[in-house]
Known about the structure:
- Two copies of one chain form a homodimer.
- By secondary structure, chain A is mainly alpha-helical.
- Chain A is about 65% helix and about 5% strand.
- In chain A, strand 2 (about 80-85) and strand 3 form a beta hairpin.
- The longest helix of chain A has 27 residues, at about 210-240.
Amino acid sequence: MDGLSRILAQLRTPAVIPPPAARVPRQVERERVFDAVRRAIVDGSILPGTRLTERELCEGFGISRTIAREVIRMLAAEKLGDFEPHVGLRVAELTRKRVREIYQLRTEIETMVVRGFLDAATEVDIDVARDFGNRMLTAARCDDRTAVVETMAEFERFMARVADNQIAAEVLAQLNARVNMLRLMAMREPGQIETGMQGVRAVIAGITARDTEAAVAAVRTFVHRSGEAVLRHMDRQTQPTIPPSQEGKKSHDTPPGRPA
Amino acid sequence: MDGLSRILAQLRTPAVIPPPAARVPRQVERERVFDAVRRAIVDGSILPGTRLTERELCEGFGISRTIAREVIRMLAAEKLGDFEPHVGLRVAELTRKRVREIYQLRTEIETMVVRGFLDAATEVDIDVARDFGNRMLTAARCDDRTAVVETMAEFERFMARVADNQIAAEVLAQLNARVNMLRLMAMREPGQIETGMQGVRAVIAGITARDTEAAVAAVRTFVHRSGEAVLRHMDRQTQPTIPPSQEGKKSHDTPPGRPA
DNA sequence: CGGAATAAATTGTCCGACAATCCCATTTTG
DNA sequence: CAAAATGGGATTGTCGGACAATTTATTCCG
């Protein structure tokens, strides 16, 4: 079971690339490792359910337990994993319920952000937004799911910045991090990218026309549909045979049992 | 400057209270210290702007640097303080801008939660809500600001639980933690409690009547007014003389300079 | 007085050690 | 044979010390 070790080893980044007189070694080891592991979790290199032990982190990155532990604390605080004392951290597995909650919240926040964006946007901002749209469409045409998702995230940050709402950006980023991997997976479903891009076009259209209500509606539809797609994908993934009969209940979310 | 040290020392909790055979020593030192410091920050015992050094934490709680550092990582991840490498953690000082953002986001989330609550609430839940309302009003009559705020937080958690939305509860808790102290301060302004309680009555009325739109409207008004109150209080606090002329701008929020 | 050199304080990182707890498998017991 | 007990290995919890890197405070000099 050192598939994880191999992954971690690959993540190892050389301490410094610019040997010539370059200032700003401002990033400390801890941050580097944290970023690397975070990225690995978010992009799916480290799968949900994986247990991250101190030793693996130490050996994988060549760091001491001090740092490994601090990184684990940070990951846990960001809810990228579930931590239990004396047990350790395991990369978060999302339940349908949780996913639905996240998308519901995202819908509201994105709505807020779009409103703020259109309130504050200059013509240039609108142009930039249109550009983001094109970049997404291009990436989609190239079937580059990663690029699509990354561009979307960047677009979100951009809108939040124009709307001048840092808190929204922070929360949004955190929520996105938690479902990022699922998004990537879901986009493998045939037709999913096309549907998504249709939504993107609608959003950009609303923004370009400066039609706030249209943009908001488009965003809500888009986010909602994305959530649905992810949930659909989760179904197909975890229960290809057994017809699920749960799902309507008060749901103290039962992680879909995965019988070998 | 060891006023902080004294505070920290007081926070020190005895390692164990139940000497008889009591299971569940499940809480590790780290969590205890984290909770204590967090509480201290949230309730204002440790004022914003204060620098939390490792040494203070170590001596204040009788712990090793290992734990002190981990606690600091957690506090920073929760945004309860701003951390800079090689500098340390200082308890977050909120700008007007940030506060406005937080309240804006809170408004949306609370709206969502109330909707979810009324969707799922049984008659008993409604009764419990009414009870929460009474508890708040009682606490207000006793002029017990802390109790008011705590009950409100508990009420929020309750609604989120009924609405079965854990993510919302998490985010809400995090946002509240960041402004809790300001809320307490703002409620010292004369008439503030009364205004607040008026809002509470409206919210409870809407809930009791199961009138979703009324409840939502009441919540939005309430949260918005609370935010306004906090902002007003911040004004009065930081710039009692100089007429502020900033405030409308794109605002890369300038923390109101506090000249000695 | 201003600025440069110096000292002190603080954080970053590593190491080693040992206790506490959990996990798992084997063995013992009913 | 199943269930409970046990025992060892792995993992986390916590401590202490050490030294480098960096920031912050102090001192000294032109």
